[in-house]
């Protein structure tokens, strides 16, 4: 008897064994019923048996061994995705999902061992079965992870959006108090601290909104208006000097620096790069902006220890940081700065890159002067 035939012939016994194990994994307060578990097991085992009966050449087997998948939206993958949705909605962890499939593999092979043929035929049957199990497991885990990430991103986005209103009220209240002539010196100083802290929190909330929007598939919105990169760079340098009075920052401007960009977004990009150079570097920071051939190139360089080579591939990924800051200053934030910089550059049809060695670190941004709207 082939393994596919055995699965169908002994379906009720296999479902019984797997259901008992799955019930032991389920939480006490879950609404997942035994009937649902049985139906899920039946769907997966039937899909596996059907897959094993399909003709498979050597190239297809090689592709599977290297992570190749079925055609998108196939019945095989549909069963795996439904299983992931079901387990996620009933409180199963990703480890529970993996444990279910590990139990299923062991259950089928243990029961089939008593009836299996010997030799090469049995070996090939086991290969096909393991391929099918691995593939349905991979698709189920992939979909589970995608759904979990989306739920987390939606939660973060709603939270950031809802925090904007009370934060705006705090900023408006601080502004009113600062104009109160009857406020004492100590009171005015305290309100100024509150205002600076609220501004910092507002920036973090805005960054979190950008992060969640781009993670959920929305492009970063930009409003293109006539701008002068030279002025934006000067303002960014002044802002960095105000926060870090001891910083040595040199600004170099050359060529045609006017174009059409989103001024507030571009300012955020430059401020983040200059601030990072001051905080994470040592010695002077140089900001070079040059315009030529319809493109503006911005380079922010600093001396100091190079960025570790292992950190470079993920440097612009969210929630990552190459290392601790070398200077004291404002809170480091959530590790979204360089990710936001990449989003801003991409929204302007530009690029951002980094080069780091013992001689220093340079971030280079290239932007077309007139990006398509």
- Provide the CATH topology of the largest domain: Globin-like
* Helicity, as a percent range: 55-70%
Please write the string of helix (H) and strand (E) elements. Answer: HHHHHHHHEHEEHEEHEE
**Beta-strand proportion:** 5-15%
Rough outline: elongated
Care to count the β-strands? 7
CA-CA gap between termini: 64 Å
- Structural class of the helices, strands and pairings? alpha+beta
User: Mind telling me which CATH architecture of the largest domain this is?
Assistant: Orthogonal Bundle
CATH class of the largest domain: Mainly Alpha
The quaternary structure here is single chain
Keywords:
single chain, 373 residues, alpha+beta, Globin-like, Heat Shock Protein 90, five-stranded mixed sheet, two-stranded antiparallel sheet, 11 helices, 14% strand
Please provide a written account of the structure:
The structure is a single chain. The protein has 373 residues and is an alpha+beta fold. The chain folds into two domains: 1-218, Globins (Globin-like); 225-368, Histidine kinase-like ATPase, C-terminal domain (Heat Shock Protein 90). Helices cover 58% and strands 14% of the residues. The protein has eleven helices and seven strands. It has helices at residues 3-9, 11-25, 34-53, 58-65, 75-89, 94-112, 120-178, 185-215, 229-243, 263-280, 337-347; strands spanning 225-228, 249-255, 258-261, 282-292, 295-303, 351-357, 360-368. The strands form two sheets. The chain has a five-stranded mixed sheet. Strands 1-3 form a two-stranded antiparallel sheet. Strand 4 (282-292) and strand 5 form a beta hairpin. Helix 2 (11-25) packs across helix 3 (34-53) and helix 5 crosses helix 7. The protein is elongated. The N and C termini lie far apart (64 Å). The model is unreliable at 325-332 (pLDDT under 50).
């Amino acid at each position: 008897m082939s393994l596919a035939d055995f699965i169908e012939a002994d379906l009720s016994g296999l479902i019984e064994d797997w259901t008992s194990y799955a019930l032991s994994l389920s939480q006490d307060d879950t609404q997942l019923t035994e009937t649902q578990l049985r139906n899920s097991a039946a769907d997966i085992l039937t899909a596996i048996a059907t897959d094993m009966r399909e003709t498979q050449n050597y190239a297809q087997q090689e592709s599977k061994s290297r992570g190749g998948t079925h055609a998108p939206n196939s019945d095989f993958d549909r069963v795996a995705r439904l299983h992931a949705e079901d387990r996620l909605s009933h409180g199963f962890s990703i480890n529970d999902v993996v444990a279910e499939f590990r139990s299923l593999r062991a259950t089928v092979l243990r029961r089939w061992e008593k009836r299996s043929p010997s030799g090469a035929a049995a070996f090939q049957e086991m290969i096909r079965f393991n391929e099918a199990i691995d593939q349905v497991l991979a698709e189920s885990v992939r979909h589970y992870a995608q759904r979990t990430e989306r739920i987390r991103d939606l939660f973060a986005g709603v939270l950031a959006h809802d925090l904007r209103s009370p934060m705006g009220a705090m900023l408006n209240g601080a502004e009113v108090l600062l104009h109160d002539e009857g406020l004492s010196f100590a009171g005015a100083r305290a309100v100024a601290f509150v205002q600076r802290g609220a501004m910092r929190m507002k920036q973090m909330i805005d960054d979190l909104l950008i992060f969640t929007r781009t993670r959920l598939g929305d492009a970063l919105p930009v409003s293109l208006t006539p701008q002068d990169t030279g002025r934006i760079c000067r303002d960014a340098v002044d802002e960095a000097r105000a926060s870090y009075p001891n910083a040595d920052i040199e600004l170099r401007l050359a060529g045609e620096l006017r174009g059409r960009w989103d001024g507030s977004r571009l300012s955020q990009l430059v401020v983040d790069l200059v601030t990072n150079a001051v905080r994470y570097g040592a010695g002077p920071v140089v900001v070079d902006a040059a315009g030529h051939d319809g493109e503006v190139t911005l380079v922010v360089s600093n001396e100091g220890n190079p960025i570790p080579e292992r950190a470079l591939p993920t440097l612009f990924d969210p929630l990552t940081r190459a290392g601790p800051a070398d200077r004291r200053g404002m809170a480091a934030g959530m590790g979204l700065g360089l990710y936001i910089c990449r989003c801003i550059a991409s929204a302007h049809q530009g690029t951002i890159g980094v080069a780091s060695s013992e001689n220093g670190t340079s971030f280079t941004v290239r932007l077309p002067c007139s990006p398509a709207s």
